Structures are given as structure tokens and as C-alpha cells.
């Protein structure tokens, strides 16, 4: 259990239970579908394996999450408990507050194309064609300049090395622009229309691309904030 703070206050006790910023981010990752250790780690750059393991143990000890064996029985997944699910409102309230008061467009040093593709993977929709669809992304800035999203009926994966599947669509553009699109600062359709995003492949697939990805859950809040600011 967490150390009980001297101050008898729900906010103080709640902050003690959650520990630090990594705890909320771990809960966020599980909320968006990352249930295994490696997937959670991949979505949290800067967090070491040892610290993730410690934070997971803490969150399990305070009843925020639980471990569930996988079908093979050799590994396990992390699932949120009722207490963990209850943090959904808190996490999104924090995100909406940040969007309203402190969420400028991404700086060049915040461009992380590998992480962006990982986020986009979680937002792939059922609008994708049946079977395997391979999308190659070429970025004109950022450390990672090429990556692939491979989607099948069973799973969606991100590859930073050539998966050697036929490419259905090739998409070229600025990584910073893709971050702006993902978080709602810009519209993908507009970026394609202006030529800032180049889509190569069958016309039917190219037209459908904007429907293949659900954007960040905060994108509508970003758009609303921009509209309110004029």
C-alpha cells in the first residue's frame, strides 16, 4: 500500500496512491489497449523496464490493475480493475485541461515518428479493406524516416524494418505535420489536398485513407479550442 500522507485530504491521498506521472501514463496505455509488458513499454519512451516493472507492481498492490494469465499460461496481461477503470474520467479531464490551457503545436524536438505510428496503430478502424493492408510511411523529418503499419483482420502491427509485404499505399509527408493531424491541429484531407501529404497507390484506397484511422481522443478538443480562439 502507498505511504499514507500526513494530510487528511482526498487529493493528497489520491496523489499518494498513484505515485507519479508514470502511473497515470501506464493506466492510459492499458486503457487504449496495450495489455502486455512489452506493448506498455513501447508506448512510454523514456521509461526503463525496471521502473515499469516497479510501477506495475505498485498499481497492482493498490488495486488499480490485475494480472491475468494468457491462453498459453506462460505470460500474462495487465487489466484494469474497477478502480482502474474509474481513472478514465480523471485522465481525460487532465488531457482536456491541458488542451485548453497548455497544448501548443508540436515543437521539432517533440516529433517521434515511431511513437506516432504506435499511436496510429491503436486507432485503426474497421473501414480498412478485408485481408492484409500494408501502408508505408515516409517522413521528411524526425529521427525515424520510414515505418509501416500492417493491418489484418486479426491484428495491427507497426514495423520499423521492411516487413516484406506488398505495399498497398505509400504516404509521404512531414512527421511534425502528422503529429498536428493526429492531435487535431490540422485535417488530413486538407493536407492531402494541398500536397503536403502525398499518397501513392490505387485511387480507391487513397481516397479511403482518412477513414482508416481514428484520431487522438483529444483531437476534437484541440479543434474546439482552436475554433474558440478564432
UniProtKB/TrEMBL annotation:
HTH hxlR-type domain: residues covered: 9-106
Family matches, as Gene3D superfamilies: SCP2 sterol-binding domain, Winged helix-like DNA-binding domain superfamily/Winged helix DNA-binding domain
PROSITE patterns given in the database record: HTH_HXLR
GO MF entries: DNA binding
Domain of life per record: Bacteria
Keyword Transcription: yes
Pfam families for this protein: HxlR (PF01638)
InterPro entries, A to Z: HTH_HxlR, SCP2_sterol-bd_dom_sf, WH-like_DNA-bd_sf, WH_DNA-bd_sf
Keywords assigned: DNA-binding, Transcription, Transcription regulation
Keyword Transcription regulation among record annotations: yes
Full protein name: Transcriptional regulator
